[in-house]
Amino acid sequence: MAAVALCGALTPAGWAADGTPGPYAFAEDATAVRGAEGTTDSARLEAGHTYRSSIGPSGRGGRLYYRLELDAASTAYVSATAVPRTGASVSYSDGLKVSLQDGNGRNCSSSGSAHFGATQSPHPIAAWAARETGGKQYACQTAGTYYVVVERSGAGPSKASRGATPGGTADPKSSASRVWDLEIGYVSEPGLKEARSTTAPETWDSATPEALAGTPRHRDGGAGFSTATTLGQGVWRDGINPGQTRFYKVPVGWGQQFSATADLGSSSGGDGYVGTALALSLYNPVRGFVDDVGSGYDGRQRSAALAAVPPVAYENRYALSDRVSGMRFAGSYYLVVHLAEQVADRFGDGPLGLTLRVRVTGAARSEPAYAGRPLPHGVFDVAAGADGTAGGSTGTGNGAGRVTTMKLLAVGGIGLGSLLVLTLGAWTVAARRRRPIRAPWPVSAEAETVPAPLPAPEPAPWDRGTPRSR
């Protein structure tokens, strides 16, 4: 099948492909692209951009290819967030795998997978892969053409799914027989000016910190990575409905250590028990999985705390554990909270109270001496608004995020008032040029290249399938 790159997003962010409001907010500046079923026709992805795509069931368009053109010095990170469409059902084994390969079909330094696992509740799941350079003797070190491989895993359109309905036809609600939408991000990290240690830190405070206490302040979580609500250190209150996923981001600087706890409030009615009700996942600035934790629910308040992660350090990347290697750069770390849809069957449609306790400790240090700038620009910066009152640029949005450029004007005879008018005018023009354009029309729900909405938290540790390989 030929790969066709489309111009612009075909549906507004936060809307499904059929034009109805959806539960996931895709990046407004995402470009629609069609994955190819072979490398020859694969579409090229550009560093610093976010893309929308879709992937068919396992065995029927369930493996797609996209193309990268890489230099020999930069590290490339590609993440894919799979979004089952509204009304789909998922099984324990349904999942997504992402890998990067060279021209000979060899996997590069790392690949990752994600599964819905024990929650069996449809929600966005994310996996990432990397072509790493420098330090270690990784594969794929030369400049050239590489391929992103995104594939679905699980039962697929098997006999089990075909027998789910009378007559042996596939269950139309089964996720195995339905298209998933994709949000794909591509981040480029420059090499270093000078070589550094290639050994991960061996000692750091690995004790789980005490949960932060205090009076909660209200913050509404976002509906996707691109609309994640900024939180700083503190106690934050929100609400969450069964089947819903909430996104938050926490600025963490070089040398700083992060911890978080999610508390689910008690229910006013209902009874019974949901085994895997609450899932709390942590992703790094390139949307790479770091760690997760979950909890069952019986109507009484429950708490889930992430295990301790190390302070942010460049050398963390050389560790084997996701929980350590994921903490490899500064920037916005994403907290993704999902409440299983099965909670509604026993305790009503909600919402239930959600409290997040966020702690960031340690003094921020200077960044490593990079030989260039990452794409998108600012992805590894610690954004302003860490108290939760303002948002920053998205981690993998198109272009360079929010960058303000001030130019010095040396014009004789121009007074301060005139200079102010000129400056305000330039800012206005720049703001208008940056404003994303939304397509006003809906697109067919089953269009092959149209991405639909839904976010991407990953399953808790017990839910996870194959760990990332290196």
Can you give me a brief rundown of this structure?
By secondary structure, the protein is mostly beta strands.
Salient structural properties:
single chain; 470 residues; mainly beta; Jelly Rolls; 5-stranded mixed β-sheet; 4 helices; 7% helix; globular
Write up what this structure looks like.
The protein is mainly beta. It has a domain at 217-361: Jelly Rolls. The protein is built from 4 helices and 20 strands. The longest helix has 19 residues, at 416-434. It is globular.
Task: Describe how the helices and strands are arranged.
Blueprint: E1 31-32, E2 43-44, E3 50-55, E4 63-70, E5 75-84, E6 95-101, E7 112-115, E8 125-131, E9 144-153, H1 159-162, E10 180-189, E11 217-218, E12 229-230, E13 234-240, E14 245-252, E15 257-264, E16 274-283, E17 289-297, E18 302-305, H2 322-325, E19 331-339, H3 343-347, E20 352-361, H4 416-434
